[in-house]
Amino acid sequence: MLKRKALQELVSWKNCANGKEALLIEGARRVGKSTVAQEFGRSEYESTILVDFSRFPKDVRSIFEEQKDDLDTFFMMLSVYYRTQLVRRRSLIIFDEVQLYPPAREMIKHLVADGRYDYVETGSLISIKRNVENILIPSEESKLQMGPMDFEEFCWAMEEDLLADAIREAFTKLKPLPDALHKRAMRMWREYMLVGGMPQVVDAYVANRDFGEADRIKRNILGLYSDDIGKFANGDAGRVRDIFARIPGQLSKHEKKFTLASIDADARSRDYDSAFFWLDDARLVNICRNSTDPTVGLGLYEDNASFKCYMADTGLLVSQTFADRQSTPDEVYRDILFDKLSLNEGMLVENAVAQQLKAAGRRLFFFSRYAKGDAANTMEIDFLIVREYDNAAMKPRVSPVEVKSTKRYGTSSLNKFRKAYGQRLGKEYVLHPRQLQVDGDRISLPLYMSGCL
């Protein structure tokens, strides 16, 4: 199994919850929720029962429907059906794809109160309203958001654990890697942008180093997402598909903000709000909102009408960019790998950075201000994050983050932002393809360190 950070989070949950709550793993399809849950059961418990509601036999359904009020019989029949001995406080029961059978989720309250076993649920699109209609959501349930693999996990899969450790240590000490390791890390970063972080794709790439095979699997996943949109998006399916198809075009623009006029000249935000909510709630995209007054509480000043829409996985973005063809041309993969890309590499780099920040548990914010005829007050900052600032007794401060896809670039927006909001800011970061550099409160980091923020 591919090594995932979520496994350690599951172990921490087990030790803290001690049977007093269930854990729901939420995420898009194919991000590895079921695999991690099963590995957790194998490594941390004497026995595990996996109830897969995507393959729900009549015999198992009858157990849930007829024995839900008699837990002694319920557990006995589950144990017999799955030929697995359940051991008090040393067994795990997994409800896989639980959104397909909401009554099982409603049972969690009583199962947790019984206290005999631990419970993990996994679900795709699980918080969409139609999947929880007419059931009582259990309060005895905590949630774990799971997305595609981040760059560090990709390094682990590629058996570059030592390189990943060296990257994190270099960031902590703010010391550049030796040139040879820097070049290796940048090569690994480009491979990551091409392959992405969907575990099935990564697994195939690790085995064969074949970008064509990786592209085929990515397109299959995009097909599954399209099917999900048709099944679950109800009256918004058309709008959701329009948005999803236009993400590459929107990100290829200089500003990268999503403009509804690209879909329809007469489009109004209120007509599309639910479609964007659906995509975000389904974890298919990462929405980045404009924080108009950068303070430590970035969400207090978010402008819901001004946002960027990234794809949740950069590897899928590569394949989606060439969705009009049956496969992504080999030369595209080759050019990205050897830093000779002819299309807008900035969209892939910025999407990949957004993916790393999201994987680190951050909500995504940017800053944009346009003042007609006033260049000094017109500026755009790719991302805003909050980090402890060593020159303010480690109190949190806003840190602007600029993403550069080329080695030659300017920092005029960053300079203007510092001049306008200097008292509120901590360190400022430039993510670029070059080596790590420190110049006072401005820290320039190689792109492969974006996940360390």
Automatic annotation (TrEMBL):
Residues 21-155 form the AAA domain. It comes from Bifidobacterium eulemuris. Keywords: ATP-binding, Nucleotide-binding. InterPro entries: AAA_14, DUF4143, P-loop_NTPase. This is ATP-binding protein. GO terms for molecular function: ATP binding. Residues 227-405 form the DUF4143 domain.
